Amino acid sequence: MTEKQEKIVQAALELFAQEGYHATSTSKVARAAGVSEGLIFRHFGNKEGLLAAIIKIGEQRLRDLYADIVLATNPKEVIRKALEMPFLVEESDYEFWNLQFKLKWELPGYDPSKMEPLQVALTNAFRKLDYTFPKLEAEFLIHALDGIGSALLKGGISDKSTLKEFLLDKYQV
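Below the sequence we write its predicted structure tokens.
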């Protein structure tokens, strides 16, 4: 991606996160990025193409976040790393992840299959640890982590380290 494309994506990310996708025009993105609106169309086709680029970046960053988890072979390590995942996100990245959460609700066609590798890894971990309902346990944990991630982004968790320690202790990992 060129420097100008990165500026456009960053400006769009910030505006979409603050004002919403539908409320943000390409002309506003162009002004914020310091480029012409035509440059947005040349690089991304249209506003939907720009959004698709941001979603693609989000999907890659999500895969990067859970790559270490799905490659782990020790079941307790898989669960521990999954529990730690939302706490690894830097506060400087909160705006980016806030947009990803927002898009999940704002746009039709959210694809939950992007979490499938994590679902499989957790299911296998819970199965190896002889949980009665490993798939349901994995689904529950993913939903709980989704909620924790959302609360972290919104500043709704006052003591991150205590919550993380509580979760690690609860799952004995």
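DSSP finds nine helices and no strands in the chain.
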